[in-house]
Design goal:
This protein is mainly α. Helices cover 75% and strands 0% of the residues.
């Protein structure tokens, strides 16, 4: 099915005629938005379509297209695909950040448990040392300069 083109003077559009551009926009906007909706959600489709028209308006004097309609449809399609690629990159980054946060939380907990375990081991070790020292003969606990040996006690 061939697109029926209205009587829009593209030369006037290129020259910056606001009325000609308004007619051009009114004719193409629904068609471009429908194409964009095939790639992205409706809100994004509206943004992309408006961006294409805004960019076209700003660069109209630079664009040398044989078929401006095909050119704009291709431009819109490429913009949608670029946004999808960007969204994929953003989602991958967010996933990596979630994983990094989960790992950090895990290792923080492990470290905290390790510190608690170390404190428990240190406490047990200290108690064992104290018990062992208390079981030593008194002569080993007295200073050596007293001149007493274990046999004389």
């Amino acid at each position: 099915m061939k697109m029926q083109k209205p009587k829009i003077d593209l030369e006037k559009v290129k020259q910056g005629d606001p009325d000609a551009f308004r007619d051009f926009f009114a004719f193409l906007y629904p068609k471009l938005k429908a194409l964009a909706c095939r790639f992205v959600d409706e809100e994004t489709a509206e943004d992309v379509t408006q961006d294409v028209f805004t960019s076209y308006w700003e660069r109209k004097h630079l664009i040398q297209a044989d078929n401006i309609y095909s050119f704009l449809f291709k431009w819109l399609q490429n913009d949608c695909l670029n946004r999808l690629r960007h969204q994929t990159v953003v989602e991958a980054y967010e996933e990596r950040m979630r994983l990094a946060e989960a790992r950090k939380t895990y290792w923080d907990r492990q470290l905290e448990m390790s510190d608690q375990l170390r404190q428990l081991i240190d406490k047990d070790l200290l108690e064992t040392i104290e018990q062992s020292v208390n079981q030593l003969p008194a002569c080993l606990l007295l200073p050596s300069f007293s001149g007493l040996d274990c046999s004389s006690l």
